[in-house]
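Morning!

This is the sequence you dropped in the shared folder:
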Amino acid sequence: MMVSRLPLPGLVLKKEVIEVNRLLTPPSMEAVRAENRIAMALSIVAPGLGQVYKGHVVIGLIWMFLGMPVALWIGVLLSLATGGAGLVIPLLCWAALVIDAYWKKDRRIHHWFMGTGEEEDYSISID
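The structure's back. Tokens below.
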């Protein structure tokens, strides 16, 4: 039994159509929830990082390097005047950024179905 590794032209076209269909198929809700949870976890680690992960790079970097330091500075100043109660402000800001990272629209370009491990075999066996 001899196996040819050269696919017929019609089979190559079929494989390309299958790949395009995989890329155009919208992701499942489980995949979307997983992406949202990753963004939320990143935003817990570093405020603004979840926004960067979702493709909102400018606003994420602004929050990381300008917004949160200002919120911390205001919180420290208010804590001096209020006996430590002002430290709640940076925590509320951080929590708002985590929630925002979860619900923000994903701007990245995905290749959702890179392969399932069960690739089709387009080889032809010649008897």
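Headline: The beta strands are 2-4, 124-126.

More detail when I'm at my desk.
O.
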